[in-house]
Amino acid sequence: MTSPTTPSLPSRYEDLDVAFRGRLRPIPELLDLVIQAQKSMAISGGVRFIPILGDSGSGKTSAALELGTHLPDAKVVELPRDAVSDRTLLRDFVERNHKQSTHELLVVVIDQYEEKVPDAKDIPAQFVEAVALMDRGDLRKLPTLFVWLTTGAAFRDELVAATRRNRRVLLKSDLEIHGPELTDWPGIVEETFSFHNSNRPLADFDVLPGDIVEISQDDGIDTLGDALEAVGDRIGINLPSLPNLSKYLVVMLWPVTDGQRITRIQGFTDPREGYKLDWSSWYRQLAPDDQASLPLHAYNRARLYFDVRLVPIAAADIHKLCRNLDNEKEKLHKSYLERFQKTHFYSILAGTWDPATYAPLRERDNSQRAHDAHTWYEQVTTSPTKIGRRLARVLRTLGIQAKHEQDIKTRHSTVRADILVERPGNVRDKVIVELKAYSTDNTMPSSIRDAVRVTLKRHAQLAGFLGRQ
Asked: Is residue 26 exposed (0-12), middle (13-18) or buried (19+ Cβ within 10 Å)?
């Protein structure tokens, strides 16, 4: 088992994946102001200017630089530092960008320039005077909106005051960006994380939506950027120990008799990743009351600790090996053993699982083989311990160390493995197999959900994540 790559959770616009930037949420007030400015310049000519105040991490840079995503007729560019205080360079920059563009509006963004120079006291008057000259000169026919982003209220006020002699250029004097509503932060954090980590959920790193809410309410967390940083810190605390927390792997083995049941089981897992239990899929099946009341944090820790899998196996692949369950000397034919060796369950136990060669589990519902297995399976679901005993023998015959009905004890609790597999040389060298021998009628989403819950609870108690209840 390989360790996961270090997760990524960018908190600044410049660190976001370029493909993700277009998904950032717009700020309606800013969009309305830009549209208003474009109409005003189309009618009256001239240029416009707006200072925007916002705390670091509030999303003002994202909002400004992504205006072109939401307004396709606007071209957004950042003004080079040397053009901020040089009128000639500023003029050339505006002319050049208009000539190179077919957009109706040029939006020029100045991102906190005042924080990058030693003395900023003369900047407001100099820059606004340059903008005013453009508004009165020949460039007034080129629709241009200057957007100055700042974290300083006093500096914003100086920019506004500098427009006193040419009020027409000032679009709004008191626009302040606070970012998305607090209630939207968990969804945004999860979406940002998932996109930058190959669609892996934050739950895989032991951070649940409730944790994000809790973090967002901490003192000192004033912006979405702060929350993203804090969630990243939370991930970092757990990250080093997550890949090797335990020597145990937990596999829930669920026999299935037809394609519909296979699909239901797979719907709770990530099949290509060795049928890892998919937390999000399982969570969605919970009733609202359970989502609010169950000790989900402990359950999720157990899922990660034991690398829980939910593996379907076709009843037809074990049928011929599990005849005459009371006779422990029943002959195990080579052809049936070879078929069993081709199952996903066996490859996971043997440590030979290869996602590159993964092929979906299928069962032909109308085959005689499937029909016979279905009839047999409905008769043996009342004897799961006998099935476990026989499968342990099958595994031993194939060279895997396996025992049935084995207790695993800790100072917190005890779990009985239907089959306990030992496989020296693997990072997780012990496998607890829980046999979920439910009748076909009971292989429903609700029964799968409840069986998973029982397993997560049992192993959360075993590890001490959850007290006995």
From this structure: middle
Place of tokens 């410049």: 14
Structure tokens at 101: 């563009």
> Is the CA virtual torsion 263, 266, 270, 272 positive or negative?
negative
pTM of the complete model: 0.72
Residue boundaries of the structural domains of the chain: 26-169, 180-240, 245-463
Q: What are phi and psi of 420, to 5 degrees?
A: -110, 120
Q: What digits encode the pLDDT tens for the residues 20-38?
A: 887 888 888 999 999 999 9
CATH of domain 26-169: 3.40.50.300
Q: State how far the Cα of 255 lies from the Cα of 437, in Å rounded to an integer.
A: 6
User: In whole angstroms, what is the distance from residue 469 CA to residue 463 CA?
Assistant: 14
Residue numbers of the chain with a pLDDT score lower than 70: 1-5, 116-120, 238-246, 363-366, 469
Cβ atoms within 10 Å, residue 445: 14
72: which residues sit within 8 A by CB, 6+ positions away? none
454: nearest Cα among 430, 438, 440? 438
Whole-angstrom CA distances from 349 to 294, 340, 437 are 31, 12, 19
Q: Mean pLDDT of all residues in the chain?
A: 89
Give the DSSP per-residue string, 34-63.
HHHHHHHHHHH-S-EEEEEE--TTSSHHHH
